[in-house]
Amino acid sequence: MSQLPARRPRFRLRKWFAATGWRHVIGIVFAVFCAFPLVYVLSSSLNPNGTLLGSNTLFSKVDFSNYVNLLFNLPQQPFVAWFLNTLVIGLVTGASTVFLGALAAYAFSRMRFAGRRVGLLTLLLVQMFPQLLAVVAIFLLLNAISNIFPAIGLNTQIGLILVYLGGALGVNTYLMYGFFNTVPASLDEAAKIDGAGHARTFFTIILPLVGPILAVVGLLSFISSTSEYVVASVVLTDPTRQTLAVGLYSFISQATSANWTLFSAGAVMAAIPPMALFLYLQKYVISGLTAGAVK
Amino acid sequence: MTIAPEAPPEPPTERPRRTVLRPTPSLSVILIKIASLGVLDAVVLYALFVLLMGGSYLVFALALIGLIAINVIYFSKRMLPGKYLAPGLVFLLIFQVFVVGYSAYIAFTNFGDGHNGTKADAITGIVANSLSRVPDSPTYAVTVVQGPNGLGLLTTTPSGTVQVGDPKNPLHTITDAQLSGGKAVSAPGYTTLSFQDLLTKQTQVAALVVPISANPNDGAIRTADGSTGFLYKSNLSYDAKADTFTDSSSGAVYRDDGNGEYASSDGKKLSPGWTVVVGFKNFAQAFGDQSIRGPLLSTIVWTFAFAFLSVFLTFAVGLFLAVVFNDPRMRGKKIYRVIMILPYAFPGFLSALVWAGLMNPQFGFINQVLLGGATVPWLTDPTLAKVSILIVNTWLGFPYMFLVCTGALQSIPEEVVEAAKMDGARAWATFRQIKLPLLMVSLAPLLISTFAFNFNNFNVIYLLTGGGPTDVNASINVGSTDILITLVYKVAFATASGRNYGLASAFAILIFIVVATVSVIGFRRTRALEEIN
Amino acid sequence: MAALALAGCSGTSSSPSSPAAAGSTITVWADDTHIAALKTVVATFEKANNVTVKLIQKDGAKIVSDFIQQAPTGNGPDVFVTANDGTGNLVQNGVIAPITIPNESDYAKVGIDAVTYNGKTYGMPVSLESVALIQNTALDPTTHDTFDQLLAAGNKLKAAGKVKYPFVVQSGTNGASDPYHLYPLETSFGVPVFGTSSAGGYDSTDLQLGNAQGTKWAAQLAAWGKSGVLNPNYTYDIALNAFTSGQTPYIITGPWSLPKIQAAKIAYSVVKIPSAGGQPSQPFVGVQAFFVNKYSKNSLLANKFAVEYMGSEAAQVAFYKTGQRAPALLSAFQSVSSDKDVTAFGAVSANGAPLPNIPAMNSVWADWGNTEGAIIAGKAANPATAWTTMVGSIKAAIAKG
């Protein structure tokens, strides 16, 4: 794992601590800070009769029946369908966001045109509108689209993805734009002289070099689209088409019939895809380092 | 990432255009381009056709302009930036710009609970609500029949009286009807409609009103389900010509008062109303509302403090951890990094509720276990509640910054850092003088966006404290942790008449102006930063 | 390209969604507590009338707001089921049509009252739900007539070291009280939230919180807060956990807590909440009811479905079986009398007060909970003043509309 082999084979605590040991101390402290509120969620997910926060006695019972019920025994709450829907919506949104954002970032980074500065700024400003009631307009918009193209309107996953892609430009573009700027322009100039068109330069020269930021933007977009609740709950009405965020919330939305333990089990399982995706993408995120070290 | 040593990262500057051979795209590329544009054009043309038929001329015009623009951009040999920007911009224009524009339009209407539809809908609603069943009147068994004057009702009272009538001819008793199980099912001169026939005429049957006598004040029979009827009287009558409702018992006349409702001269209103454009009324209310104006200053200060500190803390923690874990020698980085995004991977509202429980003064984990039975009022003391909110918001938000910083750190060429190290710069100085400025160039806009997001971060406030604690001695339901957006929610949505979307939109626009102004100022400073490099 | 466009047009104009077929299908929205039962009931309706019923499961908390949004676009369901407290909001938006129930006296009066707004009936009530007192019979088998007796018994158990808390009722979050759960105690002091109007139903201009008894109730809250009977830190989880772990003999809660209490193997009985202030204690009664879309193009079928079928004993017993709530139809309530929990909760509900269905109630909850919470926590220097201030601000908010 470590790229630089230790020069001295003998282990010296002080030296180890000065080099990486303190990093582990910080890592452990923050790992505890990150994880300890979620231990409650895990504990309640394993206790079918417990409450979420009724007691500080954690893991008084370890029983997987909440998980079994969620996966197999609740035809009214099709957890497996929600899970798959979420994966599809998250992956399609993430990949499309990366593609649309990278196209725009390339234009902003490599081309000079009137309104470029203002354009970049406007992209960010538009997204600052308070979302408090944007859903009203989104509902009416999708309702109108449904009347023309039912396949991409209300209660369709494509419709939801389209709404999410409305946010594809914006912060993400800016993030990529900053990264694109660090790729030397001499590379595309060289490609141009070799006779490569703009599209080929983009796809074969630039994109491979900006892998880390593509991975980061893809992950951010995946997580934000899979955890998004407000728009998804307005667009998707049929339970079999809903996402995890919408479906799981229905377990606890009514105080009198809230089922927190079942909800917790669902939340634990819902957290797996983003973490798995991150684990998978890490090598691309960090690729810059390794590539640099190899060179 | 491979970086050519001779080419240090250069900020975007105007480069002289070099004349190069314009490569000719291959035939297959051209074909794909034409095919995909053709499909798009076909789909949009169909939509245009529907829009034109439906009379939505404004949307038709906008869509037509969009379609032409896309075709020009992709068939032109120029407009290279357009080719790259158009795909994203289409989505942006439809799903963000339009949404903002529509919300802005709502700000000038009275749209909200009680003003939810069109005037025609409101009139039928008022008529329906004005009907009441005549007390102690019998339940009529009815059969819907087709007579000489169109649809009519054949009725049987519990005592066995059979009558028939239609909207123009009041009920009159007949004796030659055919009975089945005590209910008249057909009468000479009338055709009985089967239940399946009724299903194709549901709206007409529901609107069927058969008076019981020549005097309209005696009431009329209606049927809601096609088989039972009741005697109803209405206390309101609508005069379409004068556009007024008249209350037959009190004589009061209700007129369209221009605010989307019928009102009498003494101010009584009929429900429901309808949506109308009200001009700047919502803005006037937003500025004039006492429940907003009173606590406005302290709320604005706290909103800015909350948004700024949230950005600062999440960025500081995220960047710190990204740097700490960015050491090639360190083992187990992968595991640490995955744990760091845990708070981001769980549903935010669940985490906020768990934190609220952990911070319960008497029973919470923090006080009972970590602090050995202390009773620190984490969320119920006005000052401490603010601190707690910042702690939780940092927990919720730093993984985002951690991810972004981890990615952005990769854009810093090792050579630059190595060079600094060779110059003998110490770690902190390297970071402060080399890495941080480079990072800030690409991250500053993100920080501004995060600021804007937190400025309107409704969820974390609402779920943790609900804006509280409130001062019960002040007669106002605004708490010490309320930010502008939660205040707006309380003022515009939790009112005695329900949700007022018009007022909420007006507030949204005002807040948008504030945030945008602050952001533009922020960007100006960022640009200055960019030029330094 | 033009050919493609034309093909697209002709393709949709011959699509099956022609109006002729639409007449024989109705759409029904229901939450997870009703959907399973509906599936069985709907079959008889479909068969008898040769029509199709499309059931759509919705998140119960979103039914009213989604319906208000979608009904005017013509895309709402024909019929839906939800709790009665949204009735006024639905009426003022003009999205539901009044219905006529042939014999209203066949149903629990509180059920009919709950769906009556401005003197008109808007829904077919199917079930009643309210809180009651649940008592750990292993700790205390006796039924108490007054709340003071109950507290005395609870304190005795505490002194004997058998329990940790003499009595629990949940609070709200963030230091607010839970006025819904405290309401039976409050009404026993003669402090209902609204008075009733001449047309029947609550009168938003008659805020009874401000009556002469109100300050007495506020003083009692302060006293209970001081002695620890009420505690603003008992969230639902903590209160229920205290009961299921045997740390308290009494809890005020609803039937939704029973599964956890049964799972904890606590011996319990469900009884009416003893009066604390001398008058009868009345909990709020939430009523689940079916409503008909005013914009429905199938109003005949929709009315037949809601009134005739959902009002039937077969349907209401089916709802009881999946939702464990007391049926609103009296004959259906009789026929499930073998279930002692539902019978006991139903008896308490029958004497309760309908959960207010007037939109003005929106302006009451937050202030009410915050002020009660502050009084219980001892943060209000003078409970009576805090109460009067609260009444004033609620009145002002209602008047503003």
Key descriptive features of the protein:
heterotrimer; A: 295 residues; mainly alpha; MetI-like fold; 2 domains; 15 helices; flat; C: alpha/beta; D-Maltodextrin-Binding Protein, domain 2; eight-stranded mixed sheet; 16 strands; globular; disordered N terminus; transmembrane (chain A); cell membrane (chain A); MetI-like (chain A); sugar transport (chain A)
Give a description of the structure.
- The complex is a heterotrimer of chains A (295), B (533) and C (401).
- Chain A is built from 15 helices and no strands.
- Chain A has 295 residues and is an all-alpha fold.
- Chain A has two domains: 13-63, no CATH class; 71-294, Orthogonal Bundle (MetI-like fold), CATH 1.10.3720.10.
- In chain A, helix 1 packs across helix 13 (260-270), helix 2 (65-73) crosses helix 13 and helix 10 packs antiparallel against helix 14.
- The longest helix of chain A is centred in the first third of the chain and has 33 residues, at 13-45.
- With 533 residues, chain B is of the alpha+beta class.
- Chain B has three domains: 28-106; 119-263, no CATH class; 290-532, MetI-like fold (Orthogonal Bundle), CATH 1.10.3720.10.
- Helix content of chain B is 53%, strand content 11%.
- Chain B has 19 helices and 15 strands.
- In chain B, a hairpin with a 4-residue loop joins strand 12 and strand 13.
- In chain B, helix 9 (296-324) packs antiparallel against helix 16 (427-455) and helix 12 (348-358) packs parallel to helix 17 (458-464).
- Residues 1-21 of chain B have low confidence and may be disordered.
- With 401 residues, chain C is an alpha/beta fold.
- Chain C folds into two domains: 24-129 and 285-354, Periplasmic binding protein-like II (D-Maltodextrin-Binding Protein, domain 2, 3-Layer(aba) Sandwich); 132-282 and 358-400, Periplasmic binding protein-like II (D-Maltodextrin-Binding Protein, domain 2), CATH 3.40.190.10.
- In chain C, 44% of the residues lie in helices and 17% in strands.
- Chain C contains 17 helices and 16 strands.
- In chain C, a hairpin with a 2-residue loop joins strand 5 (116-117) and strand 6.
- Classes of the chains: A mainly alpha (295), B alpha+beta (533), C alpha/beta (401).
- The interface between B and C is large, with 67 and 76 residues.
